[in-house]
Amino acid sequence: MPSSSPRNPEAVLRRLEWTVIRRLDGLLHGDYRTLFRGFGLDLADIREYQYGDDVRHIDWNVTARLQAPYVREYHEDRDVTAWFLLDLSRSIDFGSKEKKSTISAEFVAVLARLLTSHGNRVGAMLYGADVEAVIPARNGRRHVLHLLHRMSGRPPAPEGRGTDLEAFLRAAISTLRRRSLVFIVSDFISESAWQRPLLQLAQRHEVIAVRLHDPLEAELPDLGLVVFQDAETGEQLFVDTHDKGFRERFSALSLEKEGQLRQAFAQAGVDALELATDADIADTVIRFAGLRRRRRGGARHEIRQ
């Protein structure tokens, strides 16, 4: 699907409303309730733990006092407050067809518009080399356009500095006070270890890890001698992609990295959604609806694109 210039958010959103959101209106039907169930919680009751209960709702004080696990039950608000934690570091500008930054903006536009069209609020935190902006949660189409303008209008992150995803997530922990639906939209390429703050964030919020990736990051074609450049540090390296052994080692390391990411998401108890640069946005949201539906069954899932 051809993309409008990411520098023209009105054109991007209008195209997505006609080509993606209208299509989703016909496909999701009742799954809107599955997608956008409220996460503002009020304590309703405490009862004994049953198999399949969310372990994050265990009341440890009552559990210690009664020598048996007890969980808190909550009433949920009808409305959702959703936050997009947006990694806009230099590695997001990579893409063999579409850039990861373009796919990120389209995903945010679709989800934010679907949420706000049902009366829900969306906010965002933008990260380049540091946390650059916190956009308060509001609703309405105008607010979605404002969010897209802030994403597209920012200058590129400075070269020579790697991503500190740990610091970004810790900033989110201190910023997001009310329990919310949180989308972390990132390629999860980071110099720092972010697994612990991800776990801490997931203990308070409903977290979806949206991993951006490009097919060339998993498997290299035979192109002969090429120059690799680290998008964040600027470091360059000559590589002979005609070397079959090198291509196989590259793919093996990529698979190992993916396995580590899946393990980190599972240990933190967050759902993971893989979003490739050649992905169909509507299909991705449909998959997300299936993820949310199965999430109600008590299990964490990964949806691959």
Question: Please, could you describe this protein's structure?
Answer:
This protein is of the alpha/beta class. The chain has nine helices and eleven strands. It has two domains: 9-30 and 79-218 and 252-303, Rossmann fold; 41-75, no CATH class. The protein has helices spanning 9-28, 31-35, 60-66, 100-116, 141-153, 165-175, 195-204, 244-268, 281-295, and strands at 41-48, 70-76, 81-87, 121-127, 131-138, 181-186, 206-213, 225-229, 236-240, 271-276, 302-303. The strands form three sheets. A seven-stranded mixed sheet has the order 5-4-3-6-7-10-11, with helices on both faces. Strands 1-2 form a two-stranded antiparallel ribbon. Helix 6 (165-175) runs parallel beside helix 7. The longest helix is centred in the C-terminal third of the chain and has 25 residues, at 244-268. Residues 1-5 have low confidence and may be disordered.
Strand content: 15-25%
CATH class (first level) name of the largest domain = Alpha Beta
The succession of helices and strands, N to C, reads: HHEHEEHEEHHEHEEEHEHE
Mean pLDDT: 82
Task: Provide keyphrases for this structure.
single chain; 305 residues; alpha/beta; Rossmann fold; 2 domains; seven-stranded mixed β-sheet; two-stranded antiparallel sheet; 9 helices; 11 strands; 23% strand
